[in-house]
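Below is the record:
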Amino acid sequence: MGELSKRIITSFILIGFLILLFSYGNNYHYILTIYCISFASYYEWLRLTSQPILHIIPFLVFIAIIESTMLLNIPLFLSFYIFLILFLIFLTYFSRSYLQQQIQKHPILLGAILFSCFFILMINFYPSTNTLSQQPFLIDNKHYLIIFISLVSFIDMSAYFFGKIMGKNKINSTISPNKTYEGYLGSGVSTLISFILVANYFNFYWTILDIILLVFFIIASFYGDFLMSMIKRIFNAKDTGTLLPGHGGVLDRLDSYFTTLPIFYLWFLF
């Protein structure tokens, strides 16, 4: 079976699981799913960076404490998450060699911070099941989660599609030989057009601010993909794992979600 066939089959299985989760699952099923995703992500990260697997224990204890207590101020935490992503983008553009050195020196710290941020915001799509529900500015609607997943998936698939049929100019052949400017440009334009068409069809009132935030969302999605490719090259790995045939590991599938999640929260706070 070819890689494309495996990729398609795996995608349908994941879509089927999400449909079952959103249609028949409750908040606890959702929380369990996020815990499993966080566990698998950090486990793959430790293996990718050749770190002791036992380091996953303090990570799980930390997110369990945060999720079950009132230790977190969501707006402040969101600000930190956005600052972290912007800082990583800055280092990638202006001092990539320094960023690569720091990733090699402190992989556990970077992984723990990034995955903790992701877990905490993802868990609060369903805040009614934990004590963080008393915090302001939470996205308490699974429909927003469906929009989030759909947006990132569309950007990812359209970049893959346009890159395959139009891609000629590679962005960085050393870090990611399959990614092209044409793929990213086609994905960005098609995402913007699709958003406007869908919004108008459902009579969703949108403003120029929505378009600006969507542009930042698209850029963050591209960056997440590029960042994970760079990290894999640092540690001489093609994929982060083998759990998802045709896609690689969980991190290969979620790379863009890590960097777009804070933008999505910011978008729907306005």
Summary: Confidence is low (pLDDT under 50) at residues 129-139.
